What we know:
Chain B: Belongs to the binding-protein-dependent transport system permease family. HisMQ subfamily. Chain B: This is Inner membrane amino-acid ABC transporter permease protein YhdY. Chain B: Its main location: membrane. Chain B: It holds the Pfam family BPD_transp_1. The complex is a heterodimer of chains A (about 250) and B (about 375). The model of chain A has no long low-confidence stretch (mean pLDDT about 90). Chain A has helices at about 50-55, 75-85, 100-110, 115-130, 145-160, 175-190, 205-210, 225-230, 235-245, and strands at about 10-20, 20-30, 35-40, 65-70, 70, 85-90, 165-170, 195-200, 210-215, 220-225. The two termini of chain A are about 35 Å apart. In chain A, a hairpin with a 2-residue loop joins β4 (about 65-70) and β5 (about 70). The relative contact order of chain A is 0.16. Chain A has nine helices and ten strands. In chain A, the strands form two sheets. Chain A has a six-stranded mixed sheet with strand order 6-7-8-3-9-10, sandwiched between helices. Chain B has a single domain, classed as MetI-like (MetI-like fold, Orthogonal Bundle), CATH 1.10.3720.10. Chain B has helices at about 25-30, 35-60, 75-80, 85-100, 105-125, 130-150, 170-195, 200-215, 215-230, 240-265, 270-275, 280-295, 300-310, 325-330, 340-375. The longest helix of chain B has about 35 residues, at about 340-375. Chain B is globular, with a radius of gyration of 28 Å. The mean pLDDT of chain B is about 90. Chains A and B meet through α2, β6, α3 and α5 of A and α11 and α12 of B.
Amino acid sequence: xxxxxxxxxxxxxxxxxxxxxxxxxxxxxxxxxxxxxxxxxxxxxxxxxxxxxxxxxxxxxxxxxxxxxxxxxxxxxxxxxxxxxxxxxxxxxxxxxxxxxxxxxxxxxxxxxxxxxxxxxxxxxxxxxxxxxxxxxxxxxxxxxxxxxxxxxxxxxxxxxxxxxxxxxxxxxxxxxxxxxxxxxxxxxxxxxxxxxxxxxxxxxxxxxxxxxxxxxxxxxxxxxxxxxxxxxxxxxxxxxxxxxxxx
Amino acid sequence: xxxxxxxxxxxxxxxxxxxxxxxxxxxxxxxxxxxxxxxxxxxxxxxxxxxxxxxxxxxxxxxxxxxxxxxxxxxxxxxxxxxxxxxxxxxxxxxxxxxxxxxxxxxxxxxxxxxxxxxxxxxxxxxxxxxxxxxxxxxxxxxxxxxxxxxxxxxxxxxxxxxxxxxxxxxxxxxxxxxxxxxxxxxxxxxxxxxxxxxxxxxxxxxxxxxxxxxxxxxxxxxxxxxxxxxxxxxxxxxxxxxxxxxxxxxxxxxxxxxxxxxxxxxxxxxxxxxxxxxxxxxxxxxxxxxxxxxxxxxxxxxxxxxxxxxxxxxxxxxxxxxxxxxxxxxxxxxxxxxxxxxxxxxxxxxxxxxxxxxxxxxxxxxxxxxxxxxxxxx
Lengths: 248, 379
């Protein structure tokens, strides 16, 4: 599936995962090229979030394999390394409530990358400027609006210089008027060539930036298609039913 | 208004209506706003009128401030009604503070008190310079220095003073400080252990916590005093003060562990997940993300445990340790100071002593809470 000699950014083969006896990921195969933007959609409970949490090692899985840029993700040590290749943005922001926005951004660079405080702060300010909230750096997450919090969370992830950004429904917890500012940040990021996997219900965003769209249901990948074809000519009936409900 | 509406004129923001000012309005609003409130206010006022004047008369107006013996505090000798016998406290103050600590060596506990004030102040003053150094001093240097000063070190020219001679406030402070300094870190470790993924550690910590919580402190102290020596080989003796000290510290740790566990549970799991996703190790996640938030949530519970611990130290008097309460007891039965109001004075003094420290801790905790809340702004 991949062209050239470079290994794909993400290669998932035969992934299986259970929560207790509940089979949440069933024989999932997925390959993501470098700089590719992938949107994963599907009804709630379809396993989308679990899938991307497996990619960055937050969730263990019981079968199959995941490789990031050719490095396999099994065993503790590798999972740790994988986390450093991926940046994660959560639905509920998960900013550290007791730290300022700037401290949120510098914590990992200082303690994981062993970066000096001044360099880490410069880096953090660069990324906060990139997401257009440099003036919020000294505030605590509790003092920010939802949209600003999510942009701060994106900046925090970017500070670790990830190769792949994972988004887990980044706009689902936001008021409607704040969705756009976060999506705008993500569009900027996509245009910079970042590899992105994004679980979202924002079909407008998918149309605008995604190279391919993945549709999941009941723990399985139902359909993968280039964005245009996905929306214009969905092949599977479940995809058509889902799109029929969501695009009204 | 009709069923549809379209705004044509903007409504600018206005100042709120002025509140009715003045003390009369305040009293009306806060004390007599309803029939029930008015009744409560009157009952409370009546109770205060009943209690306060005699208390003030006893503690201040009729009090005896000077005198060399109980004679001064006997009504028939003084020729007037006699309240609190502060002369007694004045004369016994040295004994109440130092117990039987040798007179010539009392500068040593004084030095310990001074070091304690320095270290404690350094820690409690949040904007103090070099607080890291202060922590090192208070938790590293101070305990060693205090031990050497109090117990003595012949190598340094300090005459050994056996713990049997320690007494009064020294012992109360030693027992509560050791309890406080040991119980917080040990409690944190136990709380983490109880949430561990490793079944053996979890079981061990749970058993430890439930054992100490399930046993009354009195029993712990008796066990430490009477039974511990039975289990040890004959040639090993544990200092008589050390036994209850260990008991109190472990007892307080179990309570502290449950307080801290409450805080750990209150930190949303997303916080640790986000830290893990950033590549922080589990230890770093605890230290930089989870514990600071958990501890902050349970500051009231921690201080509550400290206050309880401080007052519970009075129980060591039952196993023969000459803490503040015990020296007060032996001071008040001094036949030279036999006077009707001496015991009451002694207990009033004890109440003031404990109240001053507990109230101080509570106020400081309230200040910390306000300060932490201000730091983060509205959530």
